[in-house]
Amino acid sequence: MSQGVEWAMHTCLNLTYVESGQAVPTASLAKFYALPPAYLNKHLQALVRAGILSSTPGPRGGFRLARRPEAISLLDVVTAIEGPGEAFPCDQILRAGPGGRADVDYRQACVIAGSMRHAELAWRRELAGRSLADVRAEVEARYPDTPKNTRERFAALRG
Amino acid sequence: MSQGVEWAMHTCLNLTYVESGQAVPTASLAKFYALPPAYLNKHLQALVRAGILSSTPGPRGGFRLARRPEAISLLDVVTAIEGPGEAFPCDQILRAGPGGRADVDYRQACVIAGSMRHAELAWRRELAGRSLADVRAEVEARYPDTPKNTRERFAALRG
DNA sequence: TTAAAACTGGACAACTAATATCCAGGATAT
DNA sequence: ATATCCTGGATATTAGTTGTCCAGTTTTAA
């Protein structure tokens, strides 16, 4: 899994603390964690394409959450960055084995591929069952200063 | 996840069909699926280091399972090829955020990292609960010719 | 004892994906 | 108008995967 997932997760979580209506530009989001702005922006664009963020050009523009935090799961974020493909790459090796046929889809027929897909579904199910709101609630329970700190940092970066 | 996992899975599964005591050389295992022998051998070496296969040099040498198929889980194979690291790379981005401390291990403290680890544990649990014997049993139920085909292919390659 | 079979491990090359930067163009607020 | 900010493409850099090759070692068998 790529680094971009971590950036996207934390950035989206931070955006849950911004007063709705306010947009945060790439520069502020990048400075928050000292990330490279241009590259972070690529990931932000992917999040926009996935319908997780919305963007506004121009002065006072930037990014904001496109939906309520309750309606954004961690799986949504992972999928936006990593794409919809499965982690286990089934190259249908069985096609070259004894009795292999060109007209069979071994991604479906192969028991190993099925087992890997089954495990991956369990992973997806966990991530789908956890929203940004869930994460934020746990953060606030364990680290009560976070909302205040986050908003202050954004205010300072807004300059 | 890398391609080598698929090769390793199918190769280990095929080895469950070999009469114990018999070793299969890299060349035969590679020809089975038309894989590059030298590179497959790298993965076989990793499986040996992980204690999944054992190797024997010299004529009539090669690789065999080091344990019974019931005692080899799919997670064992994945870990042997991919390494023990977690799929979600937590770079402790929080260290650069507001209130970030150098003396805190954010891989433990970060709620996002924890959520990702939790999902990954669900994935690992599924893979750990499925052995080569389980896979073989399902293969034989769905494709009864497989044992015979596999053994015949090995015999032909041994030629 | 010799030769052939086979694994081991390291060095190295090719290819691909992730990471990262830059810029021209378009949209928007003031 | 102008400064701000997003968009998308081109491009470079780096790291990891894929793949090859070879010298060295172990073992079988004649």
Throw out a few tags for this protein.
mainly alpha; DNA-binding
Notes on the structure:
Two copies of one chain form a homodimer. Chain A is mainly alpha-helical and 159 residues long. Chain A contains eight helices and two strands. A two-stranded antiparallel sheet of chain A has the order 1-2. The first copy, chain A, binds a DNA duplex (30 and 30 nucleotides) through helix 3.
Alpha carbon gap, first and last residue of chain A: 34 Å
How much of the sequence of chain A is in beta strands?
A: 5-15%
- Oligomer classification: homodimer
Looking across the biggest beta sheet of chain A, what order are the strands in?
Answer: 1-2
Number of strands of chain A: 2
Helix amount of chain A? 40-55%
Q: What is the CA-based Rg of chain A, rounded?
A: 20 Å
Structural class, from secondary structure content of chain A? mainly alpha
Greatest contact between two chains: A-B, 49 and 48 residues
What shape does the CA trace of chain A take? Answer: elongated
Note the run of SSEs of chain A as H and E: HHHEEHHHHH
Biggest sheet architecture of chain A: 2 strands, antiparallel
Number of helical stretches of at least 4 residues of chain A: 8
Overall mean pLDDT score of chain A?
Answer: 97
Low-confidence stretches of chain A: none
Secondary structure layout:
The structure is a homodimer of 159-residue chains.
Chain A: H1 4-15, H2 26-32, H3 37-49, E1 53-56, E2 62-65, H4 74-82, H5 106-109, H6 111-128, H7 132-142, H8 146-158
Antiparallel strand pairs in A: 1-2
Chain A binds a DNA duplex (30 and 30 nucleotides) through residues 2-4, 23, 25-27, 36, 38-39, 41-42, 44-45, 48, 55-63.
